[in-house]
Amino acid sequence: MDLILWRHAEAEPGTLELADLDRRLTLKGRKQAQKMGSWLDNNLPDSCRILVSPSARTRETVVALNRKFKIVEELAPDASPEQILQAANWPNSRESVLIVGHQPSLGQAASMIITPFQPECAVRKGNVWWISQKQSQAEGLRTYLKAIMAPDLLPR
Q: According to the model, what pLDDT value does residue 114 have?
């Protein structure tokens, strides 16, 4: 199973008048999403299941990927890492799963898988963390970090 965690791109700051779920991407955030969406589209398997938080900023981020996705209420900004892993059906899914969500829950979910003694990993805005599992006769089921990609590392 491959689990890809994509934190939403840069969004406008929250205010008393603006509900957290309604925060939208900034111009920089839209550029980040376009870059990462293009990279992901070239690297994700066609059968990848894409699950997205209901927030405006995650929906705007995933639109840049130009693939079908499903909004999952349990992936909202206050999601627990357990909810993220449950939505992805980690580690039992037979297909790759892309989660578009929020910090700190994405970092907490990554930490539960790859660094269980650290409470959270810092997933930066617009970044993708690709976690994979491989089965081998010699070592059994192994989990590893396949890639961390940042929009500023991608060509314009």
A: 86
